[in-house]
Structure formats: structure tokens, C-alpha cells
Specification:
The protein is α+β, with helices and mostly antiparallel strands. Helix content is 57%, strand content 12%.
Length: 97
């Protein structure tokens, strides 16, 4: 699973999508496309962004939910937290001689 997270984070466009979801969670595909185009100058198609979202969703970094005819995308930080805690364990007290 961690390999999927690293693969997802390797692409700069996917990192920008995550940045946008950090700034405003629960966006539709249209909103994400608009924000990427206006703020970052990315002119990717909706299909291209949708494919990036699918990779992020497969890695567990994004979840989606349907509300009526809209599909909203939300950030899930749990996979990142698991990776961070893997290496950021509390220091053990040093033994005294």
C-alpha cells in the first residue's frame, strides 16, 4: 500500500490536486479542473484529471462520494500519517552507564 502512496505522490500534478484539496476539501471534478487551470496554468482535460484522481483514490489519498448528480472528492491523510509514523517514532530513553 505504501508503494501506491509513493507512486501517487511522485507526480507533480497529483501533488497539486492534493494541495487544492487541502485548501478546500470536497470538490467536484469541474472545480478541481478550474482551480488547476487558473492557479497553476495546467490545461489538462477533465479525463486527464480524472485519471490522476483515480490513482490518488487507489492509493487511498482521496475518497469520493456521490451527492445527487455530483461526485465530490475529499482528501484522506491517513495513508500519509501511517508512513510518517513509520519513521517518526518517539525516541527511546538512552541508558545511562
Amino acid at each position: 500500500m505504501a508503494e501506491d502512496v509513493f507512486k501517487a505522490l511522485a507526480d507533480p500534478t497529483r501533488r497539486r490536486i492534493l494541495d487544492e484539496l487541502v485548501e478546500r476539501d470536497g470538490q467536484t471534478l469541474f472545480e478541481i479542473c478550474t482551480r488547476l487551470a487558473t492557479k497553476h496554468g495546467l490545461g489538462l482535460s477533465r479525463q486527464g484529471i480524472s485519471q490522476h484522481l483515480a490513482v490518488l483514490e487507489a492509493a487511498g489519498l482521496v475518497t469520493s462520494r456521490r451527492q445527487g448528480r455530483y461526485k465530490f472528492h475529499d482528501l484522506n491523510t491517513e495513508p500519509l500519517e501511517r508512513i510518517a509514523t513509520r519513521w517518526l517514532r518517539p525516541k527511546r530513553p538512552e541508558s545511562t552507564p
